[in-house]
Amino acid sequence: MKLDRYDLKILEILSRDGRITKSKLAEAINLSISPCWERVRRLEKAGIIEGYGARIDATVLQPRTPVWVQIELKSHNAESFARFEALVRDTPEATECVAVGGGVDYLVKFEAASIDAYQRLIDAWLMSDAGIERYFTYIVTKRVKRPDDGVRPEDLIGA
Question: Can you tell me the distance from the alpha carbon of 91 to that of 100, in angstroms, rounded to the nearest whole number?
Answer without folding.
Answer: 20
